[in-house]
Amino acid sequence: MDELDSAIVRELQRDARQSNRDIARKVGVAPSTSLERIRLLRERGVIRGYHADIAPSALNRGVQALVSVQVRPLSRTVIDNFKTFAGGLPEVLSVFVMAGSDDFVIHVSAQDNEHLHAFLVDQLSQRKEIVGWRTSIIFQHLAKHDPAPLPGT
Amino acid sequence: MDELDSAIVRELQRDARQSNRDIARKVGVAPSTSLERIRLLRERGVIRGYHADIAPSALNRGVQALVSVQVRPLSRTVIDNFKTFAGGLPEVLSVFVMAGSDDFVIHVSAQDNEHLHAFLVDQLSQRKEIVGWRTSIIFQHLAKHDPAPLPGT
DNA sequence: TGAGTTGCCGAACGTTATTCGGCAACTGGG
DNA sequence: CCCAGTTGCCGAATAACGTTCGGCAACTCA
C-alpha cells in the first residue's frame, strides 16, 4: 500500500467505472502499470469488489430503518446463526454485530411502512433467540463512498 | 424501470467494472442497447455512481463504531448543520438522520480505539448542539452490495 | 390506416484492455 | 566494490471493447 496504490484506490472509490487509462493518467503511470497494481490489490483483498450505487426508491425501497436486536443466549452459535439469517433476508441491507447493550443493528429497507411492519412482525418475531428489539425509522441517509483519508496516516 | 433495466442494475450492483458487452450478453440484448439503457438510468438518477469496496483495515480503519447522537434544539437549521458537519469528517462513513429517541446515528471508523476515542472527544464534544451521545463498537459488519429483489415486486 | 414515435439491432471506427519483452533501479552476498 | 538476481515500470502489439449512427420493426394514436 504505497502512495501509488492509495491513489488508485481513491480513484476507484470515486468512480469504479472509469477506464484504466484514465486512472493511469490521473495517478501518473503507464496503463500497464496501473492495471497490474489493480490486479494485485484485488488479489490481496484490498479491493473487495465494485458496486453500483442505486437510488433506493427506484428499487421500491422507499422506507429504511435501523433495528437494534438483542438475542439470548450470547453464544457463538446463536450469534452466527442470527447473523446468517438476517444477512439472507432481502429487506436487509447491512448487519452490524455490536458490542454493548444491543447485540445487532440491522439496516433494513422496504417499500413502505406497512411492508416494513410486516417484515418485522413476520420475520423477526418468529426467531426464538430474539429477546427484544427496537426499530428506528431513517429519515435521511448520507453515505460517503469515497471518504477522505484519515489525518496523520 | 422494466425488467431489462432491473437486470442491468442487478449486474452493475454485482460487479460495476465488468464490460458493457458482458452485461449485454447476460441480460440478452445488443451492447448498444444496454449502453443506452445505462446512460438513461444514470440520467434519471437511478444509478448514482460506481464505487470500489475497500477492506477497511487497508485504509487504517481497523475499528468501527455506531454513535447515537441527540441534538437540541430540534430545528431544521441545527439538524442540517450537524448533518453537514458530521458528513465532512474524514472518520465518518455514513450519517443516518433518525426518528425516535436518537436524532442521528453516525457510522465512524478509526485506526484503533485510541484514535476513535480522540475523534469522539475532540470532534463531538466541541459541538454545543449535542446534548448526549452513545458509542457502540462494531465487531463485524456484513454489507450486502447486491441485495436480492424484494418479494412481491 | 398511416404518419409519427420508440426502442432495438448491427456495422463501423476510434479507443481501451491485456500481454509480454526489455530495461533500469534496487538488493544482498562475495 | 561488483555483479547476479529481483522487482517494478514502460511501451508496443493485438485482441477486445465503447460509442455512434442509420435502418428497421413494432407500437401509438388520431
Automatic annotation (TrEMBL), chains A, B:
It comes from the Bacteria. Coiled coil: none annotated. Keywords: DNA-binding, Transcription, Transcription regulation. Signal peptide: none annotated. Residues 1-62 form the HTH asnC-type domain. This is Lrp/AsnC family transcriptional regulator. It comes from Lentzea miocenica.
